[in-house]
Design brief:
about 140 residues, elongated, mainly alpha, about 65% helix, single chain, Multidrug-efflux Transporter Regulator, Chain: A, Domain 2, 2 domains, three-stranded antiparallel beta sheet
């Protein structure tokens, strides 16, 4: 049997990229991207070059996934990961990051609500019939 085939099956406690993706909720493509940008450490490799991930690696990917779901940027996640891995951290630092992110989300929500109100007003002014005049397009052309 050729050793290439033996290397495709991960050892106990290790996951190939597909298994790590499924277990963490992070796509294989994003796992490779996170590795390329240094957000996660480079994966161990088999002799055939296949990536192998430990349970700890999967936990890190789960942490990243949950952080992304909550809308944190990759830069913020990098900081959060460092805080998570530093057992000497001060929880006030993490709380400050969360509070700052809440403020950013509030700004985005307010901006999106303003966009929605504007579009609602424009849609109400549009007749929506077969005529060519359209206040929506007129407003967009004002740039």
């Amino acid at each position: 049997m050729d050793s290439h085939c033996n290397q495709e099956v991960p050892q106990p406690g290790l996951h190939n990229i597909g298994q790590a993706a499924k277990a963490s909720g992070v796509s294989a493509k994003m796992i490779r991207h996170y590795e390329a940008i240094g957000l996660i450490e480079a994966a161990r490799r088999t002799d055939a070059g296949y990536r192998l991930y430990s349970e700890r690696d999967v936990q890190v990917l789960q942490f990243i996934h949950r952080s992304r779901v909550l809308g944190f940027s990759l830069e913020q996640i990098k900081t959060l990961l460092a805080l998570w891995q530093n057992k000497q951290r001060a929880s006030k630092d993490v709380r400050a990051m969360a509070r700052q992110h809440i403020a950013e989300l509030d700004e985005k929500i307010a901006s999106m609500q303003a966009m929605r109100r504007t579009l609602e007003q424009l849609a109400k002014r549009c007749h929506g019939d077969d005529r060519p005049d359209c206040p929506i397009l007129d407003d967009l052309s004002l740039g």
